[in-house]
Design goal:
The chain is mainly alpha-helical and about 200 residues long. It folds into two domains: about 100 residues, Winged helix-like DNA-binding domain superfamily/Winged helix DNA-binding domain (Arc Repressor Mutant, subunit A), CATH 1.10.10; about 60 residues. The protein is about 60% helix and about 5% strand. The protein is built from eight helices and three strands, in the order αααβααββααα. Strands 1-3-2 form a three-stranded antiparallel β-sheet. The longest helix is centred in the last third of the chain and has 25 residues.
Length: about 200
């Protein structure tokens, strides 16, 4: 019994399983996508859902976030302003960047396999506050200075026993790490509640 070339190709494709994402996101694409608050809102909502969402549902939720209100209190004008911007600008850009799949006929949107990589970049997107890397560098310099001042007997640091210095430095880093972990959770796209600022 012989198989046609087409059947062999189909069988081979099924045996391999689902394909990997075809296009890796470049750093430029990631920053371009995450630079817009509305696009971050789109991803946040899509990551919260376990199925594709309609453009109407998505625009209603984003309008609610932007106007600090509940979805059922969003006005037609507020929703249409978001709807139009998503349809004409943001979703086409996200499709081009291989971040979402947008079925225009059905008005349905879902994230691509590559979209989950965007979460990794949220921590390095510039915010209004100091970055964690600079914070830890500063904490390290402070800790070294604190320990050195204690070691050479500089008052008032000399009044603290060496074990006390070790405890203080350890506590500073431990508390900082806990605050950093909580901050990372708050910045995660797709967590419950409103999107990260």
């Amino acid at each position: 019994m012989t198989m046609s070339v087409e059947k062999v190709a189909d069988w081979a494709a099924e045996s391999v399983g689902p394909s990997e994402p075809t296009e890796e996101l470049t750093q430029e694409t990631v920053f371009e996508t995450l630079s817009s608050e509305r696009r971050r809102h789109v991803l946040h909502y899509l990551f919260q859902q376990e199925q594709p969402v309609t453009l109407k549902e998505l625009s209603t939720q984003i309008a609610a976030w932007e106007n600090n209100t509940k979805c059922d209190l969003v006005t037609y004008k507020e929703r249409m302003r978001v709807y139009t911007a998503l349809r004409q600008a943001h979703l086409p850009k996200m499709v081009d960047n291989n971040v979402v799949i947008f079925d225009e006929k059905r008005g349905v949107i879902e994230p691509t396999d590559d979209a989950s990589a965007l979460e990794v970049y949220l921590d390095i997107v510039p915010h209004n506050s100091i970055s964690w890397s600079k914070y830890y560098a500063g904490l390290g310099v402070f800790s070294h200075g604190f320990v050195f001042a204690n070691w050479i007997g500089l008052p008032p640091f000399s009044l603290i026993p060496s074990l006390g210095c070790a405890v203080i430095v350890t506590l500073l880093f431990s508390v900082s790490a806990l605050v950093h972990a909580a901050s990372d959770r708050e910045m995660r796209l797709g967590r419950e509640g409103q999107p990260p600022a």
